[in-house]
Design a protein that fits this description.
650 residues; mainly alpha; five-stranded mixed beta sheet; 3% strand
């Protein structure tokens, strides 16, 4: 009774863990070949089990057995030890103890090492029940079994004994009785809601509840370092709703401290990711894999996975639409997680989202099996491979077949990708850039496009073709469309009247398209020096010089900036100013969408929302102030370039 409080109530800090591990290492050096204290031996089982008890038994009295076999069973029932690991440990421990007993029964001495002599080892093998077989002697069978058990125990010992989560848990005590005070101290604002979330996650005697009770001090600390601790904790409650989801999450948290920290970072940053993780709790396991998070999927991988998703739903348009949405949301979750955790820059976000869109378009079109050449042309951000999370897909359809059949294929593509399903909508499809706009046919032949351009096209439509690119369907037809559109878009340098017309259109867009509740002063898309300013300036310079400079003929805004600087059509410092503004505004716009789950094109007016966004972007000191000051700085510099190079002001 006197010892128990010291054992279970005392602080277990990282220094103590290091001391325990060092003590174990010293004992191994002295007894490297022993059955009891050598690698994979009896002490490996006991030390691993007792360390788990020291960490988790402080908050869970049900795992405090003095008996090793009982403790293994208790840790497994409590969810602190995987059931398969528990079974292997129990089996190996019984085996090792049996070998130890057989050794000691011979001379009634405390012997822990296997005999050096082959005859003595053969005698031990036969005492253990092994018999010679035509394919293996009794000794060979015993030694093979012995090596297998030692290797299995050692592997589990190293994984459990050196589990990073143990170090993290050792730094945090159990949740205090007055949770509200701790929540306030850690930066939680809505103590009532978050206290209720803690209570719901840890209530009861279920295995998952006990896991959350043990992990909660650490989770609270991890959430406190996120942009919104309250959001994170509330979303954890939603994501862990139900025994299956909760079990998947606590299993990952138990095995990996890095996965736990990353999960908290995601849940404390993004409502979009939180909703997606609730639908796909299996994705939490990926957060422990650095290589997986660091490696993008290729376009070919995405096409293959999209095909697998759609192939078994081929008989039903509704099921195909549902499958498309599920595939897209799962992959968007992967991209968003890598983005928020810092594994890819903003340009890579746009490229990976574009690859996902192209793979989806390719497989949806393939599932419709057109019997004549049919291609999809990406426009705008899709054409430039610079999609954002909130982007629509601007597309054109071109074909060489029956007009009625082509129209039905185009309608089916729009319906299956844009349909509202139980999983939501994959993308909004926008085909209004086609000839005649809403009143025109969805799909035209290449000659149909040529005919329209010979007689009725306007200057803004020529500008739109700068960002056209084949993205799906018949490759040869797409190539011929691309050759035609390049000839039209870069047919000749802008005349003075055409330059004035583009400037007039741009001024009208600035005046008309910023509507409440967007903040005109801090608009990320249409504000002075922001995204649209950069895009229009690059396109303006491409139209002026692209007829004579093939290097400028790219659909990408960022690649266009690089080409303009490389060819001397834009000063290097000016290009960097435009690039800095574009990157900042695009990153802020993406982060804003991931946070709130709806398109928002300006910095938030409300202080709490602004602070959240600022922290997502890495501003920790004076976050709201630094967010707005950075916006002003990068856009002011970019606007000065726009006024000189786009508007022609000295």
């Amino acid at each position: 009774d006197a010892v128990l409080p010291t054992l279970w109530d005392g602080k277990l800090d990282p220094d103590m863990l290091r001391e325990i591990r060092a003590m174990k290492a010293r004992s191994e050096e002295l007894r490297a070949h022993e059955l009891k204290r050598g690698p994979g031996g009896i002490r490996d089982v006991e030390f691993a089990v007792q360390l788990l008890q020291l960490v988790h038994g402080r908050s869970d009295s049900s795992v405090r057995s003095r008996n090793t076999m009982e403790a293994i069973d208790q840790l497994a029932r409590g969810g602190y030890l995987d059931s398969a690991d528990a079974e292997h440990l129990s089996m190996a421990y019984r085996y090792l103890r049996m070998v130890e007993h057989r050794l000691q029964l011979r001379d009634e001495q405390q012997i822990y090492a296997l005999p050096d002599q082959e005859a003595a080892r053969t005698r031990l093998a036969r005492v253990l029940g092994y018999r010679d077989r035509p394919d293996a002697s009794a000794l060979a069978q015993f030694e093979q079994t012995h090596r297998r058990h030692l290797a299995s125990v050692r592997a589990m010992h190293e994984r459990l004994f050196f589990r990073p989560l143990l170090d993290a848990l050792a730094s945090h005590g159990p949740v205090p009785a007055d949770v509200g005070e701790q929540l306030a101290a850690l930066g939680y604002r809505d103590s009532d809601a978050t206290r209720a979330a803690v209570a719901e996650l840890t209530a009861g005697l279920s295995r998952n509840a006990r896991q959350f009770q043990a992990l909660m001090p650490l989770l609270l600390q991890w959430f406190s370092a996120t942009p919104s601790p309250d959001l994170g904790l509330l979303q954890l409650r939603t994501v862990a709703d139900g025994p299956v989801r909760a079990g998947a999450i606590v299993g990952v948290l138990r095995e990996s401290a890095s996965a736990g920290e990353r999960l908290c970072r995601l849940l404390g940053s993004s409502k979009v990711v939180g909703r997606a993780l609730r639908r796909h709790p299996e994705a939490v396991a990926d957060l422990a894999d650095d290589e997986l998070l660091s490696t993008p999927k290729s376009y070919e991988q995405l096409v293959t996975e999209a095909e697998e998703t759609l192939s078994w739903r081929a008989d039903s348009p509704e099921r195909r639409a549902e499958g498309v949405r599920r595939f897209v949301r799962r992959e968007e979750l992967r991209i968003a997680s890598r983005d928020l955790l810092g594994f890819l820059p903003v340009e890579s976000v746009g490229a990976e989202l574009s690859d996902l869109a192209e793979a989806t378009l390719e497989q949806v079109l393939a599932s419709l099996a057109p019997r004549f050449p049919f291609a999809i042309i990406g426009m705008g951000k899709l054409g430039g491979r610079e999609l954002s999370y909130a982007s629509d897909l601007d597309i054109l359809f071109v074909h060489e077949g029956d007009p009625g059949a082509a129209e039905r294929i185009a309608e089916a593509v729009i319906r299956e990708i844009g349909a509202q399903t139980a999983e939501g909508r994959a993308w909004e499809i926008d085909a209004r850039l086609r000839p005649e706009g809403r009143s025109g046919a969805l799909a035209l032949t290449l000659e149909g496009y040529r005919s329209y351009w010979r007689g009725r096209a306007q200057l803004w439509e020529r500008q739109a073709l700068l960002r056209a690119r084949p993205v799906a369907g018949d490759a040869d037809l797409g190539r011929r469309f691309d050759e035609w559109r390049t000839g039209v878009a870069y047919s000749s340098p802008l005349t003075g009247d055409e330059a004035r017309e583009i400037r007039r259109i741009k001024a009208r867009v600035e005046a008309e398209r910023i509507r409440p509740p967007d903040d005109r002063e801090f608009h990320l898309k249409l504000g002075p020096g922001s995204l649209a300013d950069v895009e229009w300036t690059v396109q303006f310079l491409q139209l002026q010089a692209g007829a004579d400079e093939p290097l400028l003929r790219t659909a990408s805004t960022m690649a266009g900036l690089e080409a303009l600087a490389e060819t001397g059509h834009l000063d290097g410092e000016d290009a960097e100013r435009l690039r800095a503004s574009y990157r900042f505004c695009e990153r802020a716009r993406n982060a804003r969408y991931l946070h709130v789950g709806t398109r928002a094109d300006s910095l938030p007016r409300q202080a709490t929302e602004a602070i959240h966004l600022a922290r997502m972007l890495g501003f920790e000191e004076r976050p709201e102030t630094m967010l707005r000051e950075t916006y002003r700085q990068v856009t002011r510099r970019a606007r000065a370039v726009v006024e000189r190079r786009f508007y022609g002001q000295s």
